[in-house]
Write a structure and sequence with these properties.
Layout lengths: L11 E12 L9 E8 L21 E6 L8 E10 L5 E8 L3 H7 L6 E8 L22 E6 L3 H8 L7 E7 L13 E6 L6 E2 L8 H7 L3 E5 L2 H14 L2 E5 L15 E4 L2 E4 L6 E3 L11 E2 L2 E2 L15 E3 L2 E3 L3 E3 L21 E3 L16 E4 L2 E4 L8 H14 L3 E6 L4 H12 L5 E5 L16 H14 L4 E4 L7 H11 L3 E4 L3 E4 L1 E2 L4 E2 L5 E5 L4 H16 L9 E4 L5 H10 L3 E4 L2 H4 L3 H16 L10 H4 L2
Parallel strand pairs: 7-8, 7-11, 8-9, 9-10, 11-12, 20-21, 20-33, 21-24, 24-25, 25-26, 26-27, 27-32, 32-33
Antiparallel strand pairs: 1-2, 1-6, 2-5, 3-4, 3-6, 4-5, 12-15, 13-14, 16-17, 18-19, 22-23, 23-31, 28-31, 29-30
Length: 620
């Protein structure tokens, strides 16, 4: 194992074996923090860099942890809590993991015997105080150090404390509620604070540690890890008192070895890499940022009181009332009846039908579906029973359901669009979604949505033969997307759906041929969501520039799989959302999204959808 001149080991990519993963006692709420124990040793899976034994990390270092079977791209940087060199040359590592998102959830679900990928040990170390070199006879004449941990940040500093002589340090631990990871400490003085007063002193760190307390302690140095506001406070009082402080910082990371430059920290000496020059920094040079008042010129939302009643999640699109903003996306949900035994379809806000053409269609030949990382490619080709058959058979089933039924109308020529709209106008269908965006047909579809002239022409023609509320579904492929949308609005569209599938190409490398007969196919799923959010944001921005009476709602489509995704689109300006690919992975996705939106609004104090819609638009 290669080490630097200070004996700090350099990172190595290796495979570890899980010893156990268990809930940490004392953490509140229960099950919010886990202890993951891993063994790293010499095996055929591990590289020659491990030589004859694995290197034991030094206090302050971290590992990039990544479950072997994972749904996230990046490993998660987790500081070492405890480490132990074993007789066989292996190293046992212990990590405390706060359950926050998908990546940490995967780590917390690991079981004994599971394999895990590790990159590390990464980063620098906590500089050792001079007191560790004191002999036992002189120990009490040496200065003590102060160690501070906040929340999950207690892990690395508690690990550091375990390397110091007994009673050579005082330890302050600050939690919102409860306390954990303190059982191995041998501090001269242990002080615990909790925001709710459940353990120790009521309040956060300033309730126990003040400038006066710090001055009276006559500490040689202070070491701290925890939330950014806490570290800023520690830095401030240390600077006032004139005591050295070393702060372990956190930043979002990708590589973990200093290559990508994505985790930089601002210092008086310029930007420094948290994963390389850190995570432990000299407090004298750190420029700790306060929570930003605004980002990209958009002000952060002030906190609201949580609601005591349920929020109103209903929306109005082109005069049609939806009980909630979640709509089953055309092409992915059939006519709604197909899923009624899978979950309670009646809870949805709306259902957009399979794409309908005047005549029946068999769709495309060859492969129609191709899974890709974070998404799905499709080339269905608008297979459907035709509008007359739909009116007689499928429409009655849709109307029997509670969600708003939407007929997705497509065509090959202007005449077929008009004739189809004319037939639908004579039915009880509440709304028509005019599809000029399908990427998987040779005639019609997206070709109508590529230019302002063509889009305006077809919308105007359809508008002339139907009084039904008309929403136009657009393709993201148009080089003048916003102008096309505005042309549709000028021609009579009362809403815009954005966006249909992005075009992509997949290649069968074994055979050296395209996967799809049409070469190009539609791409959907989580991979397209950030692009779709941008397109929706920009379109709403363009619509907001119109006179108020000409503004129309936007229905967002593109990679929505969770309630967070839905809220993101709504805050970008969308009035409702459609869910497509996510239903294939999780048939209950839309129900979870509905419940998640409601719970979020109640927690954040939003009484209705309009109160949070377009939040990043309203402050521009």
């Amino acid at each position: 194992m290669v080490k630097d001149c200070e004996g700090v080991p350099y990172p190595v990519y290796s495979v570890g074996e899980v010893i156990c993963c268990s809930r940490v006692k004392g953490a509140v709420p229960a099950g919010s923090v886990f202890e993951l124990k891993i063994s790293i040793g010499i095996s055929r899976e591990n590289p020659p860099q491990l030589e004859t034994s694995a290197a034991e990390p030094v206090a302050g270092q971290f590992y990039m942890l990544h479950a072997v079977h994972s749904n996230v791209l990046l490993g998660r940087p987790i500081s070492v809590f405890l480490s132990k060199k074993m007789d066989d040359g292996s190293v046992e590592l212990s990590f405390l993991i706060l359950l926050k998102g998908t990546g940490t959830a995967e780590l917390c679900e690991l079981r004994s015997g599971d394999k895990i990928n590790l990159l590390g040990p990464c980063g620098n170390r906590f500089p050792l105080p001079t007191s560790v070199n004191c002999s036992k006879s002189l120990k009490f004449s040496c200065s003590k150090v102060l160690i501070i941990g906040g929340g999950i940040g207690v892990a690395p500093v508690a690990g550091f404390a375990s390397t110091l002589p007994e009673n050579s340090y005082d330890f302050y631990a600050s939690f919102k509620s409860g306390s954990y990871a303190l059982e191995n400490l041998k501090a001269d003085k242990l002080v615990i604070t909790t925001d709710d007063g459940s353990v120790g002193i009521k309040g956060m760190l300033p309730a126990a540690l003040t400038e006066l307390v710090l001055r009276e302690g006559k500490y040689e140095a202070v070491y701290a890890c925890g939330p950014t506001p806490m570290l800023a406070y520690v830095q401030k009082i240390c600077k006032t008192v004139g005591v050295k402080c070393w702060l372990s910082m956190e930043s979002r990371m990708a590589c973990g070895v200093g290559a990508c430059l994505g985790c930089v920290i601002d210092t008086t000496e310029g930007k420094k890499r948290c994963c390389k020059e850190g995570p432990v920094f000299d407090g004298d040079i750190l420029q700790i940022p306060l929570p930003p008042i605004e980002v990209a010129g958009i002000k952060a939302q002030p906190p609201r009181e949580p609601l005591k009643t349920e929020p109103d999640i209903s929306v109005n699109i082109a005069g049609v009332h939806f009980q909630n903003p979640v709509i089953g996306c055309s092409g992915t949900f059939g006519f709604g009846d197909e899923y009624k035994t899978v979950f309670d379809v009646n809870r949805l806000g709306g259902i957009s039908s399979k794409g309908l053409t005047l005549e029946p269609r068999q769709g495309n030949n060859g492969i129609r579906l191709h899974e890709i990382p974070s998404g799905l490619m499709n080339s269905i080709g608008l297979q459907n029973p035709g509008i007359p058959h739909f009116i007689e058979h499928e429409l009655p089933q849709m109307l029997a359901l509670k969600p708003v039924a939407i007929a997705n109308l497509s065509g090959s020529t202007l005449e077929t669009y008009v004739e189809g709209a004319n037939l639908l106008d004579k039915t009880e269908i509440p709304m028509i979604e005019l599809n000029i965006s399908c990427p998987n047909v040779s005639a019609g579809g997206a070709s109508w949505g590529m230019s302002c002239t063509a889009a305006g022409q077809v919308v105007k023609a359809v508008r002339a033969v139907t009084k039904k509320p008309l929403v136009v579904k657009l393709t993201p492929q148009s080089p003048e997307l916003n102008k096309v949308a505005l042309a549709c609005i000028e021609a009579g569209a009362e809403g815009i759906s954005l966006c249909n599938s992005f075009q992509g190409i997949a290649i069968d490398v074994e055979r050296g041929v395209p996967v799809f007969n049409n070469l190009k196919a539609g791409v959907g799923g989580p991979a397209v969501r950030p692009i779709a959010v941008r397109l929706v944001y920009e379109l709403v921005e363009a619509i907001n520039a119109l006179q108020k009476e000409k503004r129309v709602p936007v229905i967002a489509i593109g990679g929505i799989g969770t309630w967070r995704d839905a809220v993101e689109f709504i805050m970008a300006g969308a009035s409702a959302i459609q869910v497509g690919t996510a239903t294939f992975a999780n048939p209950k996705a839309m129900i979870e999204i509905i419940d998640g939106i409601s719970a979020f609004m109640k927690r954040k104090g939003y009484r209705n959808i309009e109160e949070m819609r377009g939040l990043i638009q309203k402050n521009v």
